[in-house]
């Protein structure tokens, strides 16, 4: 049989280790609540996240996030719950689905369309401005030819 | 003549292209128009058409729990309200009228859900404005968040199968009242409602 004075420190040790473990998980929990709540939109104060807002609804939503985390739900599962009740609206970063998808890929799509358009136009311009074959050029008359030679000679006085 | 024939086919191709581009741009304009001039605070009621979440909540007056499942097989009108809510006062007499009209029907239940409120203030409000149906308290916003409520008043109409058929945001007044009573609750109770 253990004597009481041996039991007391063991009990104390057990108690302190339990309490520190609890505060640790409490901090971790808080971090995770923040992680999820920052991605949710406060439905009352629509430009704020649930984490930032002090509206009662936001506080209650934070409490629900917390409870569901304790129950072992993943952040995605918790977000899915709120989406099933409030719709995509509740997400501060909307999912790339449906019309949202168009907004996500739209700019790139437009860039691609613009690129193809530019490519085609440029090619057309190049084709139009490419030098014509020598036969197409009308022969220069003798008088002009002599005039050009004279001008070139005038530019090179050394020769 | 030969040149014209050659020019015709590529220009027709460009025209097809241009039409596609025009349609695309037009679509975008519509999208932007909706985005810019639509109501940004309107939240589409995604919950309509789904099974009504279960409710387990304390009665406002009696020490007992009220559950939604106990009303299964009945048409349930669920009204979220608060004593501090001004628009709730606008619809209150209409709520009493709905209960007066359908309350005798054994297949009809109206349940008030007191939202973000104090118990005594809620009772005081009902005493002041009249009351003829049951109310529960929404502890920690569990019921309202489960129903996607983001303000009051909001009213849900649940059919005999426990499916949410309608969500009314804002007070039940004027045309809304007529629609709810004659266009929704009555057909549901008579079994003549069109499935939507």
Automatic annotation (TrEMBL), chain A:
Alphabetized Gene3D superfamilies for the sequence: Cytochrome C biogenesis protein
Domain CcmH/CycL/Ccl2/NrfF N-terminal: 18-141
Pfam families attached to this UniProt entry: CcmH
Leader sequence segment: 1-21
CDD domains: CcmH_N (cd16378)
Transmembrane feature ranges: 101-119
InterPro entries: C-type_cytochrome_biogenesis, CcmH/CycL/Ccl2/NrfF_N, CcmH/CycL/NrfF/Ccl2_sf
Any one cellular-component term (Gene Ontology): plasma membrane
Source organism superkingdom: Bacteria
Keywords carried by this UniProt record: Heme, Iron, Membrane, Metal-binding, Signal, Transmembrane, Transmembrane helix
GO molecular function: metal ion binding
Family: Belongs to the CcmH/CycL/Ccl2/NrfF family.
Function summary: Possible subunit of a heme lyase.
Record protein name field: Cytochrome c-type biogenesis protein
